[in-house]
Each structure stands twice: as C-alpha cells, then as structure tokens.
Amino acid sequence: MLIDPRKIAVAIAGFCAFLNLYSPQALLPALAREFGVGAAEISAIMTASTLAIALTAPFTGAIADVLGRKRVITAATFAVVLPMAGAALAQDVTALIAWRFLQGLLLPPIFAVAVAYIGDEWPPAQVAGVAGIYITGSSIGGFCGRFVPGLLGDLVGWRGAFLALAGLSLLSAIVLALLLPREKNFVRSEGLAASARQMLRHLKNPQLLATYAIGFGVLFNFIAVFTYVSFHLAAPPYNFSSTLLGTVFMTYLVGAIVSPMTGWAIARLGRRPFILAVIAAWVAGALLMLAAPIAAIIAGLVLCAACGMLAQTISTGYVTATAKAGRSSAVGLYVTSFYIGGSMGAFLPGLAWNSAGWPAAVAMVVAMLAVMALIAALAYRGTTV
User: Fold this and answer.
1) Interval 157-199: pLDDT, tens
2) Which end of the chain is less enclosed by CB atoms within 10 A, N or C?
C-alpha cells in the first residue's frame, strides 16, 4: 500500500510546530542559573510563546479561510526559523522573552491550519485517525524539542542547542513544502468579515465551547507537569543535569504510539466514555508523580503524556467534525483556548510552586482534571463521533 504523502506532511507540520514551542523546557533550570532568576520568572519564556499563540490563533484561522491552507502553512514553517535563531543570540531574559513571543505568533499558521486541512481533505470518518497521525508528529516534535536541547545544552551550551533546532526547523520546512499538496476541498471564505461572523457562530455552539474548555485544561496540565517536573528533578535529592532532564522527556514519545488509536477507540467506546476514562488515568498519573522514587515519577509522566495526547486528539478531531463551515476559524478558537490554558499552566503552578513546592503544583493539575471531567460528562452526552 502506498503511503499518502499528505499524512507525512501533516505529521511534519505537527513536528515542526512543537519542536519550536517546547524547546526551552529542559533548559529552564540552566537558564534560570545563567540569568540569575527564579523558576516562576524564567518560565515567562514559556508563557510568552503560548500567550502569543492564544492572541493570534483565531485571526490566523480567518486569514487561512481566505488565502488557503498550504500557502499559510508553508510560509509559517519557513518564518519560524528566524526567532529560533534569534533566541540563541539573546543576551538577557527580556530579549529571550521577545524572541519567544515572536515565535509564538508564527506557530498558529502551522498547527491550527494543519488541523483545518485535515478536516477539509479527509472524509469525516477518517478525520480522527489522521488527526492522530498529526498528533504523533506533534509528540515526536515535542520530544525532540526537549531532548535535543537538553543533550546539546551540556555539550555545546544552550545557544548552540537553539541554533541546532533552527537548522532542524529549516529542514522540516523544506520537506513539508515538497510533500504537502495544495488543498482540493477547501471552500474559500467570502472575506475576513465573513470569517469573523463565522467565528461568532462558533462561539454559540455549546459542543464547540465545551471542547474549547477541555482544550484549555489539556495544555494547562501539560505545561504545568512538564515545566515544573524539571525544577523538581533538578533539585536535591535528584540533581538532574540538562541531559538527564532531556532524557526524561522520552516519556513524551508514548503519545506517538497511542494517538493513532484514538479513532478506533472512539468508534468502539464512544467519545464521552473514552475521554472520561482518559481523564481518570491522567489523574492517576499525576498522583503517582508525588511518590519519591524516580521510577514512580517516570511512570506518572508516561501516563500524563499518553492521556494528554489522547485528550488532545479527541478534542481536535471533534472540532473539525463539528464545524461544518469555517473550520480554520473554529480550530483557531480552539487553539486560542488551548494556549491560554498553556499560559496559565506556566504561570499559576509557578505561584503554587513558590508557596508549597511540587505537591501544590500537582494538586492544581488534579483540580483542573476534575473540572475537565465534569465538562466532558455534561457536554458529550449522546456523542459518538
């Protein structure tokens, strides 16, 4: 059977976006030491990019509804190389935050529009499965964006690590441009004003609103766990180096394995029972990370990574299946909610960390999961696709 190049292309789009988004995470303790700031302060470089994404995602979707999918995706994958290289040359935290903010502005044209492309180009029954392939690429990109800088940070320093990611991003952009075909089923919007009106209609859809709220919680928990576990493991008695912290993020790869199974699971279990089971397992993983042994923490991270990727695949697939028109703007609104959650996941658990350490950060994650479960239980009654 021939491999569909479109599937490879959407996986590369996810890879490129998340390679850049999470690149500082394994280096946060080292960056905090170099610039003489605390955990909450250096985590602002994570907040800067996620906030930029949240601010621009709906408008990116509206623009893509007018200009078309491939044109926007490929332009953004090339442009994102610049702020990655700029971050490598930053002389202080303020400059690093500025480059990260610019980087965040360029990421929604990649992943928000890629998800809309999936919704346009594949039949509804196949969307969840192809979204799983996209999430697989995202999880591999997220892993490489953490592991490669963590490894290179000890070998050549964080600046060299960021430059290496800039080169990898450029290579990904070239391959994506070659493999991604121009969209065939795209229905162009009548203009930005019409696309804006469509966004307002999305905000009146209770199913989409519930999915946006769940998306908020997904990235809140992801950022909270994978940011503050670095500080937890860098401190005594663990004293992990940047290389070891990067290796810990191998747990992220489990998402690449489980995400393609989402369509199969939804077809057999139904969306509501499946996402509630995923959230329950996610709670178990978060609580497991409170144990002292490294093995327990790693097992908890594996559960958190797997459940987070499954929840993200369920949500993104449902947005594209629910929005029959203006899919880019519908996905853009989801991305906005998702990354507002990510911004809060970098900021609020930092306050909890400063006041009561790792247990307080984990408690905040568990509370968010409880809210997500309540929303899913109420909003997804009767849904099967």
Assistant:
1) 889 999 999 999 999 999 999 998 887 766 655 555 666 666 6
2) N
